[in-house]
Design brief:
DNA-binding, homodimer, 8 helices, elongated, mainly alpha, 185 residues
Chain lengths: 185, 185
DNA sequence: AGCGCCAGCTAATGGTCATAGCTTTCTAGC
DNA sequence: GCTAGAAAGCTATGACCATTAGCTGGCGCT
């Protein structure tokens, strides 16, 4: 009986594959085990159970997104940085709609996600740095940015826009609306 | 064996109660049957199964929201109507966070929800009537409004705002940002 | 070379959805 | 009132999933 050479990371990788291909409901320990060529209980050597697996998948998604955002913001300033961040946000969800819908929305309330959550918050604050927002105003602005981006992107990922008008145009309008709401410009 | 006097409507009522009290994952046929004082298979006399139940619950939520929106918009015009609509949107989700998170996001793609979905769209268009938007511009504007409201509200319902700043203030800012993006004013 | 750890196995339990087929209650029509 | 039949409920059964317990054998380390 040759070993499969699994690990927590490998299990999460397989979970993401199943998630992308068959949707959130198909992410079952049995399905992952099948794809790993292993019996379902064997997965318990690597993850504590379904709940922990879900948490790990959520953390991975949050990390992937944060990395992309950091890359998009790097080297840009002001409206450019904000627009690039918002486009990167949408691009992730278009590439991986099912992952986006599995994104944990309250990272700061989960000890296991707090670190990544704060890092993502920092990236967004970096994108807004040119606007020199003070503490509380910065928080409200970040929340507005997140609301606008998450709102459009989650609706798009869920197939929530039924009419044929261009989604690119709608999103560019949202970017414009948000950027224009910022100080100065 | 006295009859429980169930009906599809009553089953959906019970499902909403369970949803509100114990969250989406707790909405199981067994739980609903228990609350009705009935064995689980008996529910199949009233709903075709778990999927249809979910669809009926989604339709009910969509209807409830649409009714409230219609009431909020009635008798108002322009920015007032838009702001009232957006506040009614958030109020529903604050009163019933679990219901909001179970809201079907793509009603226009589901034959059973198309009618309510269109009615909700009409209500939003009514709120925007003062701005005299032409066909395609109206669609983009409705999408932006929906994105902004859904984004904030779904994050709030999911506990997604970890920091202590006032959520009322953040939402009022979003309303202002959106209203200012409309023509004229 | 061999020893021990640990990955992976089988077997078994309990929960959920779903279906089949039987029994009881209510009600409409006489 | 009485009686059929439709409607509402039941028990029993089976599939699938997560999880636990206890066993076995491959692989790394000395």
């Amino acid at each position: 009986m040759p070993r499969a050479g699994l690990s927590a990371t490998a299990v999460v990788d397989l979970a993401l594959t199943v998630l992308d291909e068959h949707g959130a409901d198909a992410v079952t320990l049995t399905a992952i085990a099948g794809r790993a060529g292993v019996a379902a209980p064997s997965l318990y050597r690597h993850v504590a159970g379904r709940d922990e697996l879900r948490a790990l998948v959520g953390a991975r998604i949050l990390e992937e997104m944060t990395d992309r955002f950091a890359g998009a913001v790097m080297g840009r300033h002001g409206a450019d940085a904000v627009a690039a961040l918002m486009r990167a946000y949408r691009d992730y969800a278009r590439q991986y709609p099912a992952r986006y819908l599995a994104l944990p929305l309250d990272p700061l309330h989960d000890p296991a996600l707090q670190a990544v959550g704060r890092r993502q918050l920092d990236v967004v604050l970096t994108a807004l740095r040119a606007y020199e927002l003070s503490g509380s105003a910065a928080i409200h602005t970040v929340r507005c940015l997140r609301s606008v981006a998450h709102g459009f992107v989650s609706l798009e990922a869920a197939g929530g826009f039924g009419l044929p008008e261009s989604l690119d145009e709608t999103y560019e309008r949202l970017i414009t609306i948000f950027v224009r709401s910022l100080p100065h410009s």
